[in-house]
Amino acid sequence: MRRVQFIELHEQPWFPSFLRHEITDALQFGLNLLKAYAPIAPLLQSVLDSTRSRSVVDMCSGGGGPWLDLSRKLQPDAQAFHILLTDKYPNRRAFQNVRGASENHIAFYPGSVDVMKVPGELQGFRTMFTSFHHFPPEEARAILQNAVDAGQSIGIFEITRRAPSTIALMFPWALMLFVFTPLIRPFRWSRLLYTYVVPIIPLVLLFDGLVSCLRTYRPQELREIVKKLSGIEYQWRVGEHSRNVWPPPITYLIGYPQARVSRS
Known about the structure:
The protein is an alpha/beta fold. It has one domain (9-260): Rossmann fold. Helix content is 42%, strand content 17%. It has a seven-stranded mixed β-sheet with strand order 3-2-1-4-5-7-6, with helices on both faces. The longest helix has 18 residues, at 17-34. The termini are far apart.
């Protein structure tokens, strides 16, 4: 199955911002409900320990990503570990909710952040969850090259896959909205309207979910992208993290400067 570079509706500049926030809120609720990225907590902890990183810059954060749950698994000392959420189209209300739930230990960057040109003041281990597939190979390489040029560690994690089993999961994923939409917070009547009366939200989620799977890079494709990077010597780890039947395997790409590796 070849990778398909097609568009996801909610990431387009012309897509209404209020609907984009509804989509990211729904995605965030699903991530929290299913705890899809919880299995990679030990992998993340090992990288943070090896590189002695105590700050994270999460990119393409959407509605907040999995960091509220992951942060509680990774670092018991909240004062020594800081996470900054960023996005090209920041959902500030969702970010504020995550910050409050984390007791202000997760912060957010209020401006738009281009992942290929991350502002120099944003220092820390860069992460991207279920978002790297948005970018065609040239832009994907530019994202990694920008991290290398800045000397920053980076971790890419994808729950979507170009596999029939994962593609099939997109249908029950979209149908879940008809059950759980009233539980999504903050509550909005417009969300009920665009779910039950005019079902734009579940249809967009289904379409974008299918496209996400078809766009997701496989480990070998990630290795090919990494081979074309230039600059200081990096340690790259690429693979799929799998545990039993659920959640599906998580594709990951992790890179960090050799000089950052702890010698202890």
